Amino acid sequence: MIRFKSNQLMLAFIAVISLSGCGSGSAPETSVPDSTASPASAMSAYPVSVENCGRTLTFNSAPERVVSLWQAPTEMMLALGLKDRIAAVAGNYAAFPDSLAESAKALPLLGTSMSWPSKEVLLSEAPDLVVGQSLEGYAFDTSQGYASVKQIEEGGAKVLGANMCTSDATTMTIETPYRTLRDFGTIFGVSDRAEELIAKMAAEKQAVVDAVKGLPTQRVAFYNGGEGPLIVLAGGIYDDAIATAGGQNVFPADSVYMSKEDFAASNANVILIGTFEGQNFATLRDYITTNFPELPAVKDGRLVEIPVADTDASISVMRGLTEIANGIHPDLNLAVPES
Question: For the whole prediction, is pTM greater than 0.85?
């Protein structure tokens, strides 16, 4: 078995993006409030503090120049009506949900999905808040010319680790976005908006939990391309989504690449085929059916396309959960939350 450490999950995610192009993501439908509105009650509540990755971040006022270095927190800020607070974003790795696409169009880009802004470029934006997916590596890797968290803080900005604190992506679950939404709600004085969105997402999760209760657990493989080794999605948010939807991931949580032999021996009842924009579902499906004809999932025709962006730790995650539940249990036909 070819197995990699858990902190390589995000690297595999980024590698797939570089090979296949951007993804196609969508999220639960939500109305986007006026981003310029600031309730008087919120304005009078400052200073406010949030606990983030073992640190206390205190804000005397809502940040006005935010640089977001990962698409998930960018989506969350847009969904909370905070477009006018975003000074710039790093390159995005997927299409934005339909409900956010228009507001995302005008966001200034500082990099690409595979290259974050250099230290000089980032600091030249004079941000008062920088948001990263985690607080180590990737966008903060000084060996790549990026600014470290310490260097950004020395420049006068605060740094928020959205969704993760370290590069260990196995810490994420389908409820991870709740925490980031609440942090944004506190920081920007829009807690009511955050709680409304969280409640909507929680209701969508509960609909899946109720629907799969008592159904037989299915053995699930989540394939994401490659022909030897094969890229698989396992651990963290992927395992949580599959388990919540009534399945069990056939591969260990620290798996990223699997040999053809191990994939053939998985005995998967269902194969989820994760796709980014640029990946063709029919091509991936044909590869699996041709090379693994003895798998139960292939014999029964249970190969299901799942847009990988729908499983990101953002406002789209319950859409992905519902799609996975329908794929694992084809008789459910649950209504998928609109984007």
Answer: yes
